[in-house]
Design brief:
This protein is α+β, with helices and mostly antiparallel strands. About 30% of the residues lie in helices and about 10% in strands. The chain has one domain. It is built from three helices and five strands, in the order ααβββββα.
Length: about 230
């Protein structure tokens, strides 16, 4: 009696074909996964703008403070006690002035983040902050914004010090980053604007996604120039 089945060579051919198909499809699947994460991040940041608007409506049009507990703890969106602890806890989020509008820890976290920080989002330093950079004053009220559709609100930020300090600081002039945007979304950054829309910005300079320290020089970088334009100096 003859037995019917695959030969070893035929099995190897089938395995090779399956491996080839996986190799072809895997990059597409990864990009689809990354695109889905960007959609979630866009939604998160639109919600932050809406939450910030709710706070302003309850406080005579005054924005929540981007100062994270150094000088204006009574108005901070999240609180960072001093001296700063080695990591952020949920209590630091609960102590912020926006917690009562949502009470959702997941809303602070970018799904594409490469670290395990509790919070990956930071607010624009110029939104009712304490510090000024380059002699420009922060914008305290919604009426201060002449171009809310071009003014940065929240963004993905990577801070290597153990957790984000809460606000994104950048000089409107010069040729180096102060803080810098995270490049977790297909070598790009997700951020929102004061008018409520959010966007997925793809870095034009490959060096931007490789930044690892504050005050990194970036002369002529189109990405640096872009973020200098949208930080909101009116």
């Amino acid at each position: 009696m003859r037995r019917h089945g695959f030969t070893l060579i035929e099995l190897l051919v089938v395995v090779a074909i399956i491996a080839l198909l996986i190799a072809i499809l895997l990059p597409s699947l990864n990009r689809a996964r990354d695109a889905a994460r960007a959609v979630v991040c866009l939604s998160n940041q639109r919600q932050w703008v809406m939450i910030g608007s709710m706070y302003a409506a309850d406080n005579q049009s005054k924005m929540v403070s981007s100062d994270t507990g150094f000088n204006l703890p009574a108005y901070s969106w999240v609180l960072t006690p001093q001296p700063a602890p080695p990591s952020e806890t949920e209590q630091h989020l609960r102590d912020g002035k926006l917690w009562r509008y949502h009470q959702n820890v997941e809303l602070y976290h970018c799904p594409a983040a490469i670290n395990d920080y509790l919070r990956n989002y930071s607010i624009n330093n110029y939104l009712n902050g304490f510090y000024t950079i380059g002699g420009h004053r922060p914008l305290a009220k919604l009426s201060d914004f002449r171009r809310p559709n071009l003014t940065l609100a929240w963004l993905d930020e990577y801070d290597p010090r153990g957790f984000n300090w809460g606000s994104f600081g950048l000089s409107p002039t010069g040729s180096s980053w102060t803080d810098w945007p995270a490049g977790w979304h297909l070598d790009g950054n997700v951020h929102s604007f004061v008018d409520g829309h959010a966007e997925h910005y793809i870095f034009r300079d490959p060096a931007t996604s490789q930044i690892a320290a504050a005050f990194t020089p970036a002369p002529g970088s189109p990405d640096l120039e872009y973020f200098q334009r949208i930080i909101g100096i009116q």
